[in-house]
């Protein structure tokens, strides 16, 4: 039976990403949801986007938009946004492409068009099933998903929200857990476990309740989500 697998913030950590896919045993019929923040901070944003494009061609990939993709897109437009982006990890993105930042926003034209197309046309604001919904950062529990503010979906920290009016369980990233462990409540879960720091990249098997983890050292471990309740 196909699994629904959800992966937290990757942030350029290609080694952890590939190790995690292998450890979770990704199958051709699995549905893979990625929660955004593919770029910035880690060493190989280019490789992560390339890997996602390959997965989009070979599997059913549902890729959400993160605030770091938004900032990278803004960085193309003016010098102030470009410098701001460099300061939150954009410098690592340019390094992964071998691009010199001296040209300012124009330097981003050296990134392949296929990768810009992925970031501008493939990424979604949210995804939902009959029992769960998936967002990058957070959701107002009293507002329909289609009516959520961008400031909430992409920027709001995990604040132990109440149960969403839909009754569904929220799964999000964005709020990095320096412990390397997810936050799990009865109706919300944060699986950004600081892959780009000294933490882990997490993958939730939604139906089985298993959390797989891998890091940049190619170490792996797994838990049951219920262990954190």
Q: What's the quick description here?
A:
Helix content is 29%, strand content 19%.
Strand tally is: 11
**SSE string, helices as H and strands as E:** EHEHEHHHEEHEEEEEE
How many helical stretches?
A: 6
Helix content: 25-40%
Q: What's the number of structural domains?
A: 1
Structural class: alpha/beta
The low-pLDDT segments are none
Percentage of β-strand residues: 15-25%
Q: What's the overall geometry? A: globular
- Main sheet properties: 6 strands, mixed
Strand order of the largest sheet: 3-2-1-9-10-11
Mean pLDDT: 98
Distance between the termini: 27 Å
Radius of gyration: 17 Å
Describe this structure as you would to a colleague:
By secondary structure, the protein is of the alpha/beta class. The chain has one domain. The chain is built from six helices and eleven strands. It has a six-stranded mixed sheet. The protein is globular. The two termini are 27 Å apart. The mean pLDDT is 98.
Brief descriptors of the model:
alpha/beta, 229 residues, five-stranded mixed sheet, globular, six-stranded mixed sheet, 11 strands
SSE blueprint:
Layout: E1 4-7, H1 14-24, E2 31-34, H2 45-58, E3 60-63, H3 67-74, H4 79-97, H5 113-121, E4 126-128, E5 132-135, H6 150-155, E6 169-172, E7 183-184, E8 188-190, E9 201-205, E10 210-214, E11 220-224
Parallel strand pairs: 1-2, 2-3, 5-6, 6-8
Antiparallel strand pairs: 1-9, 4-5, 7-8, 9-10, 10-11
Helix pairs in contact: 3-4
